[in-house]
Design goal:
By secondary structure, the chain is an alpha/beta fold. It is built from six helices and seven strands, in the order αααβαβαββαβββ. It has one domain: Vaccinia Virus protein VP39 (Rossmann fold, 3-Layer(aba) Sandwich), CATH 3.40.50. Helices cover about 45% and strands about 20% of the residues. The longest helix is centred in the first third of the chain and has 21 residues. It binds S-adenosylmethionine. S-adenosylmethionine binds next to helix 2, helix 4 and strand 2.
Protein backbone atom coordinates (compact mmCIF):
# COMPACT_ATOMS: atom_id res chain seq x y z
CA UNK A 1 0.00 0.00 0.00
CA UNK A 2 2.84 2.36 0.91
CA UNK A 3 4.46 1.79 -2.49
CA UNK A 4 1.14 2.53 -4.21
CA UNK A 5 0.72 5.77 -2.28
CA UNK A 6 4.30 6.81 -3.07
CA UNK A 7 3.67 6.02 -6.74
CA UNK A 8 0.49 8.13 -6.82
CA UNK A 9 2.27 11.05 -5.11
CA UNK A 10 5.19 10.81 -7.57
CA UNK A 11 2.85 10.60 -10.59
CA UNK A 12 0.80 13.52 -9.23
CA UNK A 13 3.93 15.62 -8.66
CA UNK A 14 5.27 14.75 -12.14
CA UNK A 15 1.98 15.77 -13.72
CA UNK A 16 2.03 19.12 -11.89
CA UNK A 17 5.68 19.72 -12.92
CA UNK A 18 4.94 18.83 -16.56
CA UNK A 19 1.90 21.13 -16.59
CA UNK A 20 4.12 24.04 -15.49
CA UNK A 21 7.15 23.16 -17.66
CA UNK A 22 5.04 22.92 -20.81
CA UNK A 23 2.84 25.81 -19.80
CA UNK A 24 -0.25 23.60 -19.72
CA UNK A 25 -1.68 25.28 -16.64
CA UNK A 26 -4.90 25.82 -18.58
CA UNK A 27 -5.61 22.10 -17.93
CA UNK A 28 -8.02 22.06 -15.05
CA UNK A 29 -6.82 20.46 -11.78
CA UNK A 30 -10.11 18.57 -11.90
CA UNK A 31 -8.84 16.70 -14.95
CA UNK A 32 -5.66 15.81 -13.08
CA UNK A 33 -7.71 14.58 -10.12
CA UNK A 34 -10.00 12.63 -12.47
CA UNK A 35 -6.96 11.01 -14.11
CA UNK A 36 -5.45 10.02 -10.77
CA UNK A 37 -8.82 8.69 -9.62
CA UNK A 38 -9.05 6.53 -12.73
CA UNK A 39 -5.54 5.30 -12.01
CA UNK A 40 -6.42 4.05 -8.53
CA UNK A 41 -10.07 3.04 -9.08
CA UNK A 42 -9.49 -0.60 -10.21
CA UNK A 43 -7.14 -1.20 -7.26
CA UNK A 44 -9.70 0.21 -4.82
CA UNK A 45 -12.37 -2.03 -6.32
CA UNK A 46 -10.07 -5.05 -5.89
CA UNK A 47 -9.18 -4.05 -2.33
CA UNK A 48 -12.81 -3.84 -1.26
CA UNK A 49 -14.07 -6.94 -3.08
CA UNK A 50 -11.33 -9.57 -2.68
CA UNK A 51 -8.56 -8.08 -0.58
CA UNK A 52 -6.38 -4.99 -0.17
CA UNK A 53 -2.67 -5.03 -0.89
CA UNK A 54 -1.04 -6.43 2.21
CA UNK A 55 2.00 -8.44 1.16
CA UNK A 56 2.46 -11.82 2.81
CA UNK A 57 4.74 -11.32 5.80
CA UNK A 58 8.34 -12.45 5.24
CA UNK A 59 7.96 -15.59 7.41
CA UNK A 60 4.66 -16.58 5.75
CA UNK A 61 6.16 -15.84 2.34
CA UNK A 62 8.88 -18.41 3.09
CA UNK A 63 6.35 -20.90 4.44
CA UNK A 64 4.22 -20.52 1.29
CA UNK A 65 7.23 -21.30 -0.90
CA UNK A 66 8.22 -24.24 1.28
CA UNK A 67 4.73 -25.79 1.30
CA UNK A 68 4.44 -25.29 -2.48
CA UNK A 69 7.64 -27.34 -2.86
CA UNK A 70 8.35 -25.78 -6.27
CA UNK A 71 10.31 -27.54 -8.99
CA UNK A 72 11.56 -26.24 -12.32
CA UNK A 73 8.58 -27.78 -14.14
CA UNK A 74 6.00 -25.83 -12.11
CA UNK A 75 3.81 -23.10 -13.57
CA UNK A 76 2.81 -20.80 -10.76
CA UNK A 77 0.07 -18.17 -10.50
CA UNK A 78 -0.33 -15.62 -7.75
CA UNK A 79 -3.98 -14.52 -7.63
CA UNK A 80 -3.74 -10.87 -6.65
CA UNK A 81 0.03 -10.46 -6.79
CA UNK A 82 0.34 -6.85 -5.56
CA UNK A 83 3.83 -5.64 -6.44
CA UNK A 84 4.83 -9.18 -7.44
CA UNK A 85 7.24 -10.02 -4.65
CA UNK A 86 5.87 -13.58 -4.24
CA UNK A 87 5.89 -14.04 -8.04
CA UNK A 88 9.57 -13.07 -8.18
CA UNK A 89 10.48 -15.52 -5.40
CA UNK A 90 8.44 -18.31 -7.04
CA UNK A 91 10.04 -17.63 -10.43
CA UNK A 92 13.45 -18.50 -9.01
CA UNK A 93 12.34 -22.09 -8.29
CA UNK A 94 9.84 -22.77 -11.10
CA UNK A 95 9.46 -22.82 -14.88
CA UNK A 96 7.48 -19.58 -14.85
CA UNK A 97 5.47 -17.52 -12.41
CA UNK A 98 2.63 -15.18 -13.32
CA UNK A 99 0.80 -12.70 -11.15
CA UNK A 100 -2.43 -10.84 -11.80
CA UNK A 101 -3.55 -7.69 -10.07
CA UNK A 102 -6.02 -4.89 -10.67
CA UNK A 103 -4.03 -2.13 -9.01
CA UNK A 104 -2.49 -0.08 -11.84
CA UNK A 105 0.28 1.50 -9.71
CA UNK A 106 1.28 -1.88 -8.25
CA UNK A 107 1.19 -3.60 -11.64
CA UNK A 108 3.35 -0.87 -13.21
CA UNK A 109 5.79 -1.09 -10.33
CA UNK A 110 5.80 -4.90 -10.53
CA UNK A 111 6.30 -4.83 -14.30
CA UNK A 112 9.31 -2.59 -13.81
CA UNK A 113 10.80 -4.99 -11.23
CA UNK A 114 10.02 -7.99 -13.46
CA UNK A 115 12.69 -6.74 -15.88
CA UNK A 116 15.13 -8.30 -13.40
CA UNK A 117 13.21 -11.61 -13.21
CA UNK A 118 13.07 -13.20 -16.67
CA UNK A 119 10.77 -16.08 -15.59
CA UNK A 120 8.24 -13.78 -13.92
CA UNK A 121 5.29 -11.98 -15.51
CA UNK A 122 3.15 -9.33 -13.82
CA UNK A 123 -0.12 -8.70 -15.60
CA UNK A 124 -2.97 -6.28 -15.18
CA UNK A 125 -6.20 -8.27 -14.95
CA UNK A 126 -9.09 -9.43 -12.84
CA UNK A 127 -8.06 -12.67 -11.14
CA UNK A 128 -11.60 -14.05 -11.53
CA UNK A 129 -11.45 -13.80 -15.31
CA UNK A 130 -8.17 -15.59 -16.04
CA UNK A 131 -7.37 -19.01 -17.43
CA UNK A 132 -5.40 -21.17 -14.98
CA UNK A 133 -5.65 -24.41 -16.95
CA UNK A 134 -1.85 -24.79 -17.17
CA UNK A 135 -1.27 -23.99 -13.47
CA UNK A 136 0.48 -26.52 -11.27
CA UNK A 137 0.67 -24.19 -8.28
CA UNK A 138 -1.66 -21.38 -7.18
CA UNK A 139 -0.89 -18.88 -4.46
CA UNK A 140 -3.56 -16.76 -2.83
CA UNK A 141 -3.84 -14.34 0.02
CA UNK A 142 -7.43 -13.19 -0.27
CA UNK A 143 -10.31 -12.40 2.08
CA UNK A 144 -12.50 -15.28 3.36
CA UNK A 145 -15.38 -14.34 1.01
CA UNK A 146 -12.99 -14.40 -1.94
CA UNK A 147 -11.68 -17.83 -0.87
CA UNK A 148 -15.26 -19.11 -0.98
CA UNK A 149 -15.62 -17.65 -4.46
CA UNK A 150 -12.27 -19.24 -5.37
CA UNK A 151 -13.53 -22.67 -4.32
CA UNK A 152 -16.74 -22.23 -6.27
CA UNK A 153 -15.40 -20.65 -9.46
CA UNK A 154 -11.66 -21.33 -9.86
CA UNK A 155 -11.11 -24.68 -8.11
CA UNK A 156 -13.33 -26.71 -10.52
CA UNK A 157 -11.34 -25.34 -13.48
CA UNK A 158 -7.92 -26.38 -12.10
CA UNK A 159 -6.31 -29.55 -13.37
CA UNK A 160 -5.95 -32.53 -11.08
CA UNK A 161 -2.86 -32.38 -8.93
CA UNK A 162 -2.62 -28.57 -8.83
CA UNK A 163 -1.34 -27.40 -5.45
CA UNK A 164 -3.08 -24.43 -3.89
CA UNK A 165 -1.32 -22.51 -1.15
CA UNK A 166 -3.38 -19.98 0.76
CA UNK A 167 -2.03 -17.52 3.27
CA UNK A 168 -4.15 -16.77 6.34
CA UNK A 169 -7.54 -17.93 5.07
CA UNK A 170 -8.76 -21.48 4.57
CA UNK A 171 -10.80 -22.78 1.72
CA UNK A 172 -14.25 -23.24 3.12
CA UNK A 173 -15.25 -26.93 3.60
CA UNK A 174 -11.92 -28.36 2.40
CA UNK A 175 -9.41 -30.15 4.56
CA UNK A 176 -5.86 -28.92 3.92
CA UNK A 177 -3.11 -31.46 3.20
CA UNK A 178 -0.84 -29.42 5.42
CA UNK A 179 -1.17 -26.42 7.67
CA UNK A 180 1.78 -24.48 8.98
CA UNK A 181 1.83 -21.06 10.61
CA UNK A 182 -1.62 -20.18 9.15
CA UNK A 183 -0.55 -21.19 5.65
CA UNK A 184 -2.74 -23.88 4.09
CA UNK A 185 -1.75 -26.37 1.38
CA UNK A 186 -4.46 -28.06 -0.71
CA UNK A 187 -4.32 -30.29 -3.76
CA UNK A 188 -6.98 -30.55 -6.46
C1 LIG B 1 -3.40 -9.45 0.40
S1 LIG B 1 -2.73 -8.92 -1.19
C2 LIG B 1 -1.70 -10.31 -1.58
C3 LIG B 1 -0.41 -9.94 -2.30
C4 LIG B 1 0.49 -11.14 -2.63
N1 LIG B 1 -0.24 -12.20 -3.24
C5 LIG B 1 1.19 -11.66 -1.41
O1 LIG B 1 0.81 -12.72 -0.89
O2 LIG B 1 2.13 -10.99 -0.95
C6 LIG B 1 -4.17 -9.14 -2.25
C7 LIG B 1 -4.00 -8.53 -3.64
O3 LIG B 1 -5.07 -9.00 -4.43
C8 LIG B 1 -5.41 -7.97 -5.35
N2 LIG B 1 -6.77 -8.24 -5.84
C9 LIG B 1 -7.91 -8.26 -5.12
N3 LIG B 1 -8.96 -8.52 -5.92
C10 LIG B 1 -8.46 -8.70 -7.17
C11 LIG B 1 -9.05 -9.02 -8.43
N4 LIG B 1 -10.36 -9.21 -8.55
N5 LIG B 1 -8.23 -9.16 -9.48
C12 LIG B 1 -6.89 -8.97 -9.37
N6 LIG B 1 -6.28 -8.66 -8.21
C13 LIG B 1 -7.06 -8.52 -7.12
C14 LIG B 1 -5.27 -6.69 -4.55
O4 LIG B 1 -5.09 -5.57 -5.40
C15 LIG B 1 -4.04 -7.02 -3.69
O5 LIG B 1 -2.87 -6.53 -4.30
Amino acid sequence: MAEAMIFIVIVGALIVILLYVFNLTWISPYWVIAFLTLLIAPGLYAAFTSGPFVPSARKRHKTMLRLANLTDSDIVYDLGCGDGRLVFSAARFSKKAIGYDLSIPLVLYGKMLSLFHPKARIRFGNLWKQDYSDATVIFCYLLPGAMKQFHKEVWPRLKKGTRVVSNAFEIHNLKPLKKEDKVYLYQV
